[in-house]
Amino acid sequence: MALHNVIENLIHELRYREVQPHLRPCRRLADLGCRYDHFFLTRVKDRAKECWGLDVTVENGTDGNVTIINADITKRLPFEDGFLDQITILAVLEHIADPKAVLAEVRRCLAPGGRLIVTTPTKLGIKVHDLLVRTRLVRDVEPDEHKDFDVSPEALADWARSAGLVVEDVHSFELGMNAFLLASRPQ
């Protein structure tokens, strides 16, 4: 296995280990920006009766209780109001020009009490990742693909609150290189 694959897999594994303890068993779970391999969703599909993965890089399909949809998550999501119990957005917001709009749409799709789990690199994490890209130690994004915003746990919490979500937990992890958010739609 190439060195860049080892490093990319380690980065993903550390993120998934941060998120998994916060996932609850539920009826409906969606992973927004699930990637071409929808690996995280495949890994946690036993936590929900029905799962959806949305990304512009995937082809529509199903695999057991997982439905994959080619969709742009910056547009209206293909779910009715209050349809989902949990939504994950893992290392995606840093690729989006208007993360606040995505969070507002997430609120619409969450059932009352439904939960949102987000991870995103902080400004430090983006700088480190971009350095790894330039040195070709990772190849999972193009150079300068990340949007230039000063994300921090506090900024992530502010975005969630402005979308009408209740922040339950927000913190940094991986030596401050990533931010974690757990928020919910009010009852």
Molecular structure report:
- This protein has 187 residues and is an alpha/beta fold.
- It has one domain: Rossmann fold (3-Layer(aba) Sandwich), CATH 3.40.50.
- Helices cover 30% and strands 30% of the residues.
- It contains five helices and eight strands.
- Strands 3-4-2-1-5-6-8-7 form an eight-stranded mixed sheet, with helices on both faces.
- Strand 3 (61-63) and strand 4 form a beta hairpin.
- The longest helix is centred in the first third of the chain and has 17 residues, at 3-19.
- The radius of gyration is 16 Å and the shape is globular.
- The mean pLDDT is 92.
Notable traits:
Rossmann fold, 8-stranded mixed β-sheet, alpha/beta, single chain, 187 residues, 5 helices
Give the overall form: globular
Helix-and-strand structural type: alpha/beta
Tell me the helix content: 25-40%
**Rounded Rg:** 16 Å
Mean pLDDT: 92
- Quote the beta fraction: 25-35%
The counted number of beta strands is 8
Q: Count up the domains.
A: 1
By CATH, the superfamily comes out as: Vaccinia Virus protein VP39
Biggest sheet, in brief? 8 strands, mixed
CATH topology: Rossmann fold
Assigned CATH class: Alpha Beta
CATH architecture label name: 3-Layer(aba) Sandwich
